[in-house]
């Protein structure tokens, strides 16, 4: 995915927030108490993820959306990721046992 390059920290965070909306207490309880939280940071409210990844099918978009939830308490787990319908076509029998065991 070419949306979040990781080259320049502040511009990347702004781009991430432009697409997903800026983290706030509504979507991440306690975010305003984090040490680097800046209330002066630009506030984008709308989630524009769907418009940004038009080439993903519904299962792919659903998985991506669940992986990009700000609040880690609500973000999808690795076990749920491997069992997500997006990977239904993947033959899990050929995956190394260590991978499967590590997400159980």
UniProtKB/TrEMBL annotation:
<dbReference type="InterPro" id="IPR011009">
    <property type="entry name" value="Kinase-like_dom_sf"/>
</dbReference>
<protein>
    <submittedName>
        <fullName>Uncharacterized protein</fullName>
    </submittedName>
</protein>
